[in-house]
Queue: 2 jobs
Job 1
Amino acid sequence: MRFFIDTADVEEIRDAHAMGMVDGVTTNPTLIARSGRPFEEVITEICGIVDGPVSAEAVSLDAAGMIAEGRELSGLHPNIVVKIPMTTDGLKAVGVLSSEGIATNVTLVFTSMQALMAAKAGATYVSPFVGRMDDLSADGMEVVEQIVSIYNNYGFQTEVIVASIRNPLHVLESALIGADIATIPFTVIRNLASHPLTDKGIEAFLADWDKRRK
Ligand code: G3P
């Protein structure tokens, strides 16, 4: 299972990368705006840190605009994946970009049927937003399970990136379902690594070690 980090904060990316937990990066316009840095500058810096797919989102609403943005973004670095919103225009853009060999990540996916359409359009990745589904009392992980089954039924090559992850259970369930990738916020990566009994154990070992030296 691959771990992507869902952030545009390069310090978080460097930290998680040093742990060996970053196989790729996803960003979105909100995360880029939060970084307070120019889009192309931050995306290029991220590509210099991580040797893996880096998703950068197109902000046009029409297919022609998304295609133009996608071509431009993919020219920034070979690892760029163009994130395209799941709309009818988005599907058209994915078809054109994928025919040109440009990797795409269809984002803002909330149903398995949207994911099926993204795969049929030729998307490299699809991103179901599990946290936002859970926020509306829908079961986000159930949708991921459906997508993985449907893709397996028909042998689609599109990979599933579980996105909008809010807690370690989302990652656990993604792994149990066999989703290809989870894109995880930095705080959740840290939470996955920690356990109070680990901290308590270290504390006890060090206390005993100190007593031995006295
Ligand atoms: O990768 C998509 C993700 O950034 C959305 O997360 O927490 O804003 O729903 P969230």
Job 2
Amino acid sequence: MRTVYVNGAYLPETEATVSIFDRGFLMADGVYEVTSVLGGKLIDFGGHIVRLHRSLTELDMATPCTDAELLEIHRELVTRNEIVDGMIYLQVTRGNPGDRDFAFPSADTKPTLVLFTQSKPGMAASPMAKIGMKVISIEDQRWARRDIKTVQLLFPSMGKMMAKKAGCDDAWMVEDGKVTEGTSNNAYIVKGNRIITRELSNDILHGITRAAVLRFAREAQMEVEERAFSIAEAQEADEAFITSASTFVMPVVEIDGTAIGTGKPGTVAARLREIYLEESLKAAI
Ligand code: PDD
């Protein structure tokens, strides 16, 4: 049985509880981070902590503990659960005010902090990286502050189910004719040697993997263009792929039934995946 963390205590997963009045439960008033673990080490922990602080600040939510304590909890959970490869999920909510009220509770309501591990042995060798993903496009119906990593994931969940129903792996969301991002990842196309991905704004999550992959791409003299693209442009691209903490770099081989390029994972995506895994492992803590 997993050991999880809740508000200062390490507990068996069946004994960890959160109040029914918790604002995370009642209002989706919470933020989260997912940090991957490879070889027992944390990938880009620093990046995830910076984004957590940004999410908390944007929502005027208190910080539950210090960064050093958060690192300690992550490491303790990896050790206690003997995680070699997998993920650590962290969630902070505005806490339990003892009742339901739309207004934020007073400052003495402590934030709720929950962390748990998900074991995925051999995660870096996912067969999907060799096969590639199939995606459908759907209208983006999320709220307008997608740069904040909140736990209100109902529409992304619905998108994932629409993809499943269509026999596909994920959905790319479209707004005003342009792709915003995948349901739980950032979206890219490749034309020649040029990598194209939507620019940062409130319309998308500022992916930690995105930042690293674009940095490595530029260092490898690849051209990067940060701008929005349409589904039609993506269908005519040489390659397509996604990035996230849990999938790293994953090729996309089909969009709305149209094969991308050769219909097989492309060389740019494969190279970026290789560089990302190599460099991230070197810097893992
Ligand atoms: N999802 N865009 C969205 C909407 C996301 O939910 C995510 C991450 C990303 C990629 O961000 P990062 O590279 O920092 O993981 C982009 C996580 C993995 C999840 O919800 O499980």
